[in-house]
């Protein structure tokens, strides 16, 4: 039985792609979910559904009533989701508001959605690449867009909230997260154009695995503010990872070799601290790479 059985969990951004999957998963393990969303969605089923804005102190205070755990997913999800001002301000104010109020109330644990974009690599206007492979949480960042900056600052807010109020926070650097059929379509595109998704190291995550990781983030025995890459252990590409790196990023140092379609992202931290292992991965052949 999950530690969340019978416990009240707030999920912000509950009508979004990861939000819907997370609410369904938390329902399945017996949690009492308060869902906060700024848009209605007939697919959203929760013990409490509240319409509100995560930037509003009053809306968040109402949503936090009787809550024991927080999952903060509400955000504008890419640089083009609004004006630069809107994307940045919505994301950072929402995260600060939710974590500050949760911390002040004495809530012990929160999980927030950061992004692989906190590194600044995927959306960067310059032709940059990860500093080395396997890419890990200690790699330097190079931010050139407002969305990535917002996610980097969300991680800073998590560290501040822990230091100020003692609330333990897990920030997940999600890659592209989607349903299996969409991920399969993306893989077909990468098969034809292997350089697609290169700046995300060909990483991906099934929505169900994102929800599972969030459960682990809420229940794992840890303290402090932690940031984790969380991806499938394999890539979207039906090609050997070593061949992809040889063809498209030969200049990037490799600290070790990669087996088969192994994702070139270091998952040691999320595996050792949270015990996470993706359970829904694409079953792809390993084809010869022609370029």
Automatic annotation (TrEMBL):
Pfam families: Epimerase (PF01370). GO terms for molecular function: oxidoreductase activity. InterPro entries: Epimerase_deHydtase, NAD(P)-bd_dom_sf. It comes from the Bacteria. Transmembrane segments: none annotated. Keywords: NAD, Oxidoreductase. The keyword NAD applies. The keyword Transferase does not apply. Residues 9-185 form the NAD-dependent epimerase/dehydratase domain. Belongs to the NAD(P)-dependent epimerase/dehydratase family. PANTHER family: 4-EPIMERASE, PUTATIVE (AFU_ORTHOLOGUE AFUA_7G00360)-RELATED, NUCLEOSIDE-DIPHOSPHATE-SUGAR EPIMERASE. This is NAD(P)-dependent oxidoreductase. It comes from Kribbella sp. HUAS MG21. The lineage of its organism: Bacteria, Bacillati, Actinomycetota, Actinomycetes, Propionibacteriales.
